[in-house]
Write a structure and sequence with these properties.
single chain; 420 residues; alpha+beta; BirA Bifunctional Protein, domain 2; Rossmann fold; 8-stranded mixed sheet; 16 strands; binds adenosine monophosphate; ATP-binding; ATP binding; nucleotide-binding; ligase
Length: 420
């Protein structure tokens, strides 16, 4: 062990578990890549003001959880706590929305940072795969994203997740609801910080997880009763399209999410095997965000799914992903001459696209065979002086133990044929 440990609230992805993380990223992004979403990568840090304005000055993410710092050059930056603001910033900066093909559909995958109180499922460094569809107001786009997330989770074998759906209204109807909610909340018995929240962001109070707060919220006005006709029709269409796709969801009028930029459609994916950190992903429509960060009006919708929690959900359901063994062939040389010969064979196998590995470090037969076993290889190639004198190597099928002598100069073709 070294003097150093991974920083609090973080963990390292190590083999063999790390293969599951890669597979999860792959599974989440596959439906997106198949649906017209192009890959985008943005820096791990941005101007702190982008998040303050985009995510919201009063949100926990901005006030408490952001890794903000000043550079030696005097710039105020922050490690990204989420993806949407950065992706929209990048799309606007590159004028992707002016290329005449809206919506601009983008997907991303990367690390995010929040200074949170660490617990199971909640880390200070975590990974998301996300998708954003920028510049179109169309219920089918909202539906598409929800359907693709459902498809991604299902392709991983997850079953015990639920989709919660709500509409947060728009600039016309939300203010009316907001005022009604504020009036209701002011009549409750709440602590000072929560009272302050009533003024700044009353919808967030609905999200309060404390039982004594939730108890008082039973009769709170619900946004659904305040939605304007346009928002109502939009939401009904989203619901109809998702249902027609056979995707099951639950209406949850309490769902507000922790970011300020959402309008109309909002949704969350929760998994029932995860305890308190049950949200595996979430998203929604953010029609006002572009203008909030200085861009033109660009109605958009997106989601981000957490990779870490998706892996926890797989474990909670006992799902074992069917991951191919990383190594197909393992070479075990006995002696100096065999080392050169088999190293050449391994190199040629790799050039032919066969996953091959080698017993390095001059191991004896026993230790080398142990390594071959551990590698999960289907075949082992063993060669000693006598084999080489006869111009052969021993090709052993690990499962049956069956061993055949194969001429050295045809072993690459023989292995490739057997694996095909
Ligand atoms: P949010 O933008 O907060 O809704 O986050 C979207 C998804 O990212 C969540 O549903 C989680 O799966 C994941 N996520 C957010 N914060 C954390 C965290 N601190 N640790 C692990 N995963 C997180």
């Amino acid at each position: 062990m070294s003097t150093f440990k991974a920083p609090k609230g973080t963990y390292d992805l190590l083999p063999p578990d790390s293969a599951t993380y890669l597979a999860v990223r792959e599974a989440i992004s596959a439906p997106l890549r198949n649906s017209g979403y192009g890959y985008i990568e943005t820096p791990g840090f941005e101007d702190v003001a982008l998040f303050a304005r985009g995510v919201g000055e009063s949100t926990d993410i901005v006030t408490k959880e952001m890794y903000a710092f000043e550079t030696k050059g005097g710039d105020q930056l922050a490690l990204r706590p989420e993806g949407t603001a950065s992706v929209l910033r990048a799309a606007l900066e590159a004028s992707l929305h002016k290329a005449g093909n809206l919506p601009v559909k983008l997907w991303y995958s990367g690390s995010y940072y929040r200074y949170e109180r660490p617990q199971k499922g909640r880390y200070r460094h975590f990974s998301q795969v996300g998708a954003e569809a920028i510049g179109a107001e169309d219920p089918a786009l909202d539906a598409e994203l929800i359907i693709l997330a459902d498809q991604a989770y299902r392709s991983l074998g997850l079953r015990e997740f639920r989709i919660l759906l709500n509409s947060l209204g728009d600039q016309e109807c939300r203010p009316v609801y907001r005022a009604a909610l504020q009036e209701f909340l002011r009549g409750l018995d709440l602590d000072e910080e929560t009272r302050r929240r009533i003024d700044i962001n009353p919808l967030r109070v609905l999200d309060d997880k404390r039982a004594d707060v939730q108890k008082q919220l039973t009769d709170a006005p619900v946004l659904r009763d305040y939605l304007c006709d346009a928002c109502k029709a939009y939401h009904e269409e989203v619901r109809a399209l998702i249902s027609a796709a056979g995707v099951v969801f639950e209406d949850d009028e309490r769902l507000v999410r922790g970011l300020d930029y959402y309008t109309r459609t909002t949704f969350e994916f929760v998994h029932d095997g995860l305890g308190s950190q049950s949200a595996v992903g979430g998203g929604g429509r953010y029609d006002g965000l572009s203008e909030m960060i200085g861009g033109p009006a660009l109605p958009s919708v997106g989601w981000a799914l957490g990779v870490d929690r998706t892996v926890l959900a797989l474990r909670a359901e006992g799902v074992e992903l069917d991951l191919p063994s990383p190594t197909s062939v393992f070479a075990v040389p006995l002696g100096e001459e065999a080392r050169r010969a088999l190293f050449g064979v391994v190199t040629r196998l790799r050039q032919d696209g066969v996953a091959a590995d080698f017993a390095y470090g001059g191991k004896g037969l026993k230790a080398a065979m142990k390594a071959a076993n551990r590698s999960g290889a289907r075949y082992t190639l063993v060669a000693g002086e006598r084999d080489l004198a006869e111009g052969v190597v021993q090709l052993k099928e690990m499962e049956s133990g069956e061993q055949t002598a194969v001429p050295l100069d045809s072993v690459v073709a023989e292995v490739a044929a057997r694996l095909a």
